[in-house]
Amino acid sequence: MKKANKKVSAAIIVIGNEILSGRTQDVNVITISNWLNDLGIKLEEVRIIPDKEDSIVKTVNEIRRKFNYIFTTGGIGPTHDDITSQSISKAFNLSYIYHKEAFTILKKYYGEKKFNKGRKKMAKLPKNALLIYNPSSAAPGFVIDNVHCLPGVPSILKSMLGGLKNRVIGGRKIFSETLNLITVESEIAFPLQKVQNKFNDTEIGSYPFFNKGKIGVSIVIRSTEKELIKKSSKEILRFVKKRSIKIIKRN
Question: Which of 45, 69, 108, 182 is the most buried (most CB within 10 A)?
Answer without folding.
Answer: 69
